[in-house]
Amino acid sequence: MAKRKVTITDIADEAGVSVPTVSRVVNGRDDVSPATRARVEELLDRHGYRRRGTSGSRAALLDLVFTDLDSPWAVEIIRGVEEVAHEAGVGTVVSAIHDRAGSARQWLTNLRARASDGVILVTSALGPGIQDELRRLGVPLVVVDPAGSSAPKEPTIGATNWAGGMAATEHLLELGHRRIGFIQGPPRLLCSRARLDGYRAALDAADVPADTALVVPGDFYHEAGFTGCNRLLNLPEPPTAVFAASDQMALGAIEALRRRGLRVPEDMSVVGFDDLPEVRWSAPPLTTVRQPLSEMGRLAAQMALDLARRVQPASPRMELATELVVRASTAPPREV
Amino acid sequence: MAKRKVTITDIADEAGVSVPTVSRVVNGRDDVSPATRARVEELLDRHGYRRRGTSGSRAALLDLVFTDLDSPWAVEIIRGVEEVAHEAGVGTVVSAIHDRAGSARQWLTNLRARASDGVILVTSALGPGIQDELRRLGVPLVVVDPAGSSAPKEPTIGATNWAGGMAATEHLLELGHRRIGFIQGPPRLLCSRARLDGYRAALDAADVPADTALVVPGDFYHEAGFTGCNRLLNLPEPPTAVFAASDQMALGAIEALRRRGLRVPEDMSVVGFDDLPEVRWSAPPLTTVRQPLSEMGRLAAQMALDLARRVQPASPRMELATELVVRASTAPPREV
DNA sequence: CTGAAAGCGCTTACAG
DNA sequence: CTGAAAGCGCTTACAG
């Protein structure tokens, strides 16, 4: 996989320039002609050149990349990754890419200079171009909660989202609910689709007809839970329970209910997904599907570290178990 | 300040051993006699040796150190630091020290190997020994929300905690509350003491006698808000409002009230401190004192980067403004 | 704008 | 367990 590490000598030979010239390009000096610089840079990129100082230093840095750093979600993953990395004497570099191409480039340049030993990508914050480049650099890549296709080339870590969606829905069915609303996650994420399918599968297994009006869009954030819940309440025949595909949306839904003077769980049951630490303390404490986020982080870090040491992971794809946590936001429907 | 960088040659000379031997110690090989290793390690530490590869590379890494990575608080700081660092093409290494001495050592060793360009410490997670060592290494240090003395040697970034504590209390006084409970933060933190003093100052200014029974201990976490609030409710003459020194404790307090069937704000007003993103969505949305956490992170990162480039910061100590955000958890007391 | 030469900091065999 | 020797990857003057 990783052929002999390229040195500036190699690049110089291939470019037909001297070693000092390549050195200048690598260090971003401005005393190089544009033509030469372009040629050398192209070669540098193509070969995935990485500054090596003198010789191979031990794994010392792991990169953890998010699209945004704007949810309590993120800190759980960071915690898991940091724990494993810290134990291994490895630093954890946290970045947010914000879906901007320039931002990803910036990060990649820095990553190369730092000679990072592995990358953990949360929900594929990177375009395929960048991923190819990582491959060329020989930096191992692990994806947590992948977005794209169901058969990515990279090893992935996820949770049993389908089973979790099913468990939450079964819980509501067992309480006697028949009309159960569902607030979706962003459809591009695999985990969103799996949760929705789990919901549908549970309804199906219970012979409850699926009403498409009961499934409303969302994006995992509070606001979407708020508006989604309002939408469900405005239905001619509103549901008696709401299953939100994330805890944040569940809290948004509870706020929508509170504003209408409806009580949880007396007037409406609400279930979330994630089990963020704070939902133990929401009013009322949230029934939700626990996703072992920090465990997922730990596992991803372990895998990335193994790959950096050229140890093949036991399995290239892993799903950790989700678990229904019943608290105080669910109860039988009024009419029963 | 920073004398000539030490090389392994310097260390070898001083220790009276060969260069390869020092190299072996630095790389943690085990084929060195304990006596030699000890002598060399002592010298390495004393001179603050840092691997330099070949020659000086640009600022590329900033270290952000927490005691624990267990609160939504942390992610706000991380976000601010990461933004500034990212823009500067610098990576952000996040670590949790957990108050364990060995953990700090581990981190320091890694930091040295990585040649970090600056350290941002959140609430002084490090012992003074480690701080001295950083100084020797010539790595600039910025402290966010300092713990110890009020006149630290390092530049610090904080918020106007005293003014915030006062503003929250004044708000409750204006609503007509006279018995206001206070749930404290950990007393070793400067910010905790300042919030308490702000609370007292407001009572004092309004000529409301301070009842020491109304001040209960806490540690910023949910649980402490829960038990603290229960303690206040069990008082012979309970308060009509609770000011918690953190949002998480405020949410814990709301849960304690809910369990007793008391409504917020009808039966009891609750104010928090921080304005974490999620408290906009608590039930009811929390009145709180906004602390610009991500701004504090941004500022700390900017300062650390400046110091790394030997630019003196405008002021070595800075407090960003807090701001009262009134939402739905406060109202006039019943009896008025 | 570029290269030949010297040199720096470090590591890797090898020998004992 | 330790050092003398060779060498690697890179940079820094210097010269043109």
TrEMBL record, chains A, B:
CDD domains: HTH_LacI (cd01392), PBP1_CatR-like (cd06296). InterPro entries: Cro/C1-type_HTH (IPR001387), HTH_LacI (IPR000843), LacI/GalR-like_sensor (IPR046335), Lambda_DNA-bd_dom_sf (IPR010982), Peripla_BP_I (IPR028082). SUPFAM superfamilies: lambda repressor-like DNA-binding domains, Periplasmic binding protein-like I. Keywords: DNA-binding, Transcription, Transcription regulation. One of its GO terms (molecular function) is DNA-binding transcription factor activity. Residues 3-50 form the HTH cro/C1-type domain. Residues 6-60 form the HTH lacI-type domain. Pfam families: LacI, Peripla_BP_3. PANTHER family: LACI-RELATED TRANSCRIPTIONAL REPRESSOR (PTHR30146), LACTOSE OPERON REPRESSOR (PTHR30146:SF153). This is LacI family transcriptional regulator. It comes from Streptomyces coryli.
